[in-house]
Amino acid sequence: MGWIDLSIFCVYLLAMLGVGVYFLRKNKNTDDYFVGGRKLSSIHIGLSVVATDVGGGFSIGLGGLGFTMGLSGSWLLFTGLLGAWLSGVLLIPKVSGLARRKGFLSFPQYLEYVFDKRVALIAGLISAIGYLGFTSSQILAGAKLASSTFDGLSIDKALLIMGTIAIVYTVLGGLKAVIYTDTVQWIILMAGLIFVGLPFAYTSIGGYEAISATLPA
Hints:
Layout: H1 3-26, H2 30-35, H3 42-53, H4 56-69, H5 74-102, H6 107-114, H7 117-149, H8 155-204, H9 207-214
Helix pairs in contact: 1-8, 3-8, 4-7, 6-7, 7-8
């Protein structure tokens, strides 16, 4: 890769840090930092949720799963979509209304209100352990892409760079930094897949003729 590619990559990472610095200055109180002032639009929240799910783990991992398992690998995706839909329609509207009235900043606080502190602690531990693995896999997927794209960049260095930047802009800007960087990342991801990845892949394998000749009926 040439200096143009490296420059784009560096500008992108610096822009993510810039978002964190921007919201560090904009945030005025605890609500701003932890829950975005409770004024974030549903569009940005939805794009953030999708970008979190359809990150490196899904865009790369599910492609590999489909290659090894075939169409049956899509069950993992559709069950996740079903769970997200049920949460969005049934759970989140009820929880968000109560959270606004009580000033909750996290889901374990809601569980403490409904049940007790032990349930909240267990939920917090489960979330911490689950998202530690989930987030690590996303950063690892991105680091693998970066190390395979840029000569001389080892996966350890890529992990250190990308992990540090993700932590820094999150700590600086809070939830707003996460939401808006996710929105940008989702747009870049989809534009890259639709306008670059899929057309190049389709052309490289030989087009529809090659697909119909290779795949079973």
